[in-house]
Amino acid sequence: MVNIKKxxxxxxxxxxxxxNFLQYSGGILLAVIGVSGLIRLxxxxxxxxxxxxxSQKNNGYGASKYGQ
Length: 68
Hints:
The protein contains 3 helices and no strands. With about 70 residues, it is mostly helical.
């Protein structure tokens, strides 16, 4: 536990540019989400079901299957 605190403290006090910051942030995000979770997120797509147009109902002569 002490070793992790030292590593975290040294990382937080280290000066870095934008590129290094994004690399560290991406690595942390990848560790939190996990590689399989990230791949699953990229592969699966959630499409809303397409609603079919309402069919017009006929009333009267010819409305049943026998009348057509």
